[in-house]
């Protein structure tokens, strides 16, 4: 139904964003002309448009998201390479709902029933790179990693010599996102995420005598081996305690021949 897409675009641009407006606008000659429909022939009704909106499969949605990246690479690729930087701006926003819409839930932070969409923009160009509709009750950082996994590897392939930075508010500051940034070499909030590890190894003992791990997410952790004594162990450690006896395990079965204590 190609005219459905054209019809939806037309009356959305005109300010009619709800599908129930189609029950009246489907008879409007102006919209029939815009949709390239014969005058006098009604356009799609509200149920038709609602079915069309819900007909997209998850695969279709992923293709639409990839189309945003295709557009960004094609249109903005030259200036991105010249600038040498991509700044990913992550934001969650509120979309108030009214009635019984699917996935509409009450959000205590916004004090309303809503959807909680997740958006990723490229800050310098203003391009939308990804969008995800989420239930109204989820936290800000919900599903951010799967969304970034569709974006970051593609950008690194297209722009291998361009530095990628990520900016988000405190609602996204989770250990998992920090680990993601570290793994892909992304700067977070314009500051490099540096994890410093130091080891002091003893060739004589064959172990690390000391180690230090400094991580901005978890602080500094130190490990140290102390009280190391090099030399022959005290013979008393191998002495048989008084009142005990040693049994020769290699003696013929059943004999239990005792050994003389030294």
What does this structure look like?
The protein has 262 residues and is of the alpha+beta class. Among the domains are: 2-53, no CATH class; 58-188, no CATH class. It is built from seven helices and 13 strands. It has helices at 2-13, 22-25, 29-34, 46-53, 58-83, 144-158, 175-184; strands at 85-92, 95-96, 105-107, 112-115, 118-122, 127-132, 163-167, 187-188, 196-202, 207-215, 219-224, 246-247, 258-259. It starts with a helix and ends with a strand. The model has no long low-confidence stretch (mean pLDDT 81).
Write the layout of secondary structure elements.
Elements: H1 2-13, H2 22-25, H3 29-34, H4 46-53, H5 58-83, E1 85-92, E2 95-96, E3 105-107, E4 112-115, E5 118-122, E6 127-132, H6 144-158, E7 163-167, H7 175-184, E8 187-188, E9 196-202, E10 207-215, E11 219-224, E12 246-247, E13 258-259
Parallel strand pairs: 1-7, 7-8
Antiparallel strand pairs: 1-5, 2-4, 3-4, 5-6, 9-10, 10-11, 12-13
Number of strands: 13
Which band does the percent of strand residues land in?
15-25%
Shape: elongated
Provide the residue-averaged pLDDT: 81
Low-confidence runs of at least 5 consecutive residues: none
Keywords for this structure?
262 residues, alpha+beta, 5-stranded mixed sheet, 3-stranded antiparallel sheet, 7 helices, 23% strand
